Amino acid sequence: MSDNNDKHIESASLDEALEFIYKLIYSTSLPLKPDLLKENDKLSRIYDYLVELRGVVSAFSKGDFSPDIKIKGFLGGSLKNLQANLCHLIWQVEMVASGDFSQRVEFMGEFATAFNSMVVRLHRSLEDLRQQEELLTSFTENLKQEIAVRIKAEEALRLSEERYKALATLDPLTGQYNRRQFFHLAIAEFARIQRCKGIMSLCMLDVDMFKKFNDTYGHLNGDICLRHIAEISRASLRKMDIQGRYGGEEFIFIFPETDHDNGMLVAERLRSTLASTPVKLEDGKEVFVTASIGLTEVRGDNMNPDVEQALRDSIQAADDALYKAKADGRNRVVSSRDVKAA
To answer: Is 249 a residue of the active site?
Structure first.
């Protein structure tokens, strides 16, 4: 009877131990080590083994491959081998990330095949990107060069248009407006003062004894003299004043918003500056020249309604005054009022 009881106790203890080991394997929490395992050395070693195994597997499941695996035997060796492979794989991934696409995994079966295929595809994709980048860089460089060429072409066209405009509107010798452009601007100004009942002065300038100057110093110096007259007038008059070369040694000016008396002052200042500023000839010699000026006032409230005819009438009036300035001894300013009075 005693033997049966002992066998029953041993059977119950074994069931309790197996139940505990079952929990140790399947339970999420670690059960406390029962006393019966402490009394059984083999069961106690199995417990310690499983606890160590749980810790390693738990760490691996969380991506921590650094645990020091102390268990021995087949499972311990297999885990150490897995740990080494995974650590090496991490290193290979880091190498691929740094640009080393020669890395290949020679273990882990299907994972190795997928990993190696991924590295190959990634390498090809990067090569394609590099080629596209090179093409884009080349295209960008070509585009920059094309833009530069276009900018140069546009600049050349702009300069060409400016030169064409200058040729079409400016006198090539003096840089003053040519006769055609002066008439175009003058008609616009006459129309303006007609609309607003404004006022202006128009004057004609002629270089005194210019034929004698040419005969004495030559036509080349005669051109220098005309450029000198143009430079003095540009420096002496306002930007709003309209300046033109009428022909030969004659120049014509319009002084907007300038009445007779102020026009006479401006014309006299111009004449005086010309008379006191020598012309520097080609050989360096300095020669003084004078000019005669005829001036007329134009009022919008009593001018001819035909602005072109009004312009012609004003030019004639200024020219008559210029003729009188020549007849009275040259180097002077004469108003059209003096011509009418005479």
So the answer is: yes
